[in-house]
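Practice problem: predict the structure.
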Amino acid sequence: MLNSEFDFTKQEYHDKEKEIHYKDNIYKIYWKSADIDNIKKEIEQLQQEENELQNKLKPYQDEVKQLKDQCNEHLENVHTYNEIKDSCQSLIGALATANGLTIVQMHKQLDIKLDD
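Answer:
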């Protein structure tokens, strides 16, 4: 882990401090003096660390995308199933009306469970 310019606990190398008042709290922040070269070096190190972390995340991001695609496919299948089921229920209703039966009676006559 990289040394941060800011710290919330005073160390012997800290030569600057500041109090920040926020929502009825007082925070003391301590940091060491820094020159531009050290800041640039730390930025480069942070960018390198970010790249390494992004590379470690890549397999998981790919897996999440694959799972999302699978989920979308399942949702499309459920939608298609529901459309087919609704169409069948309409036909059963029309058959029941044509035969002078209730929908429950038509289900029994067709040997279809009501929870199908």
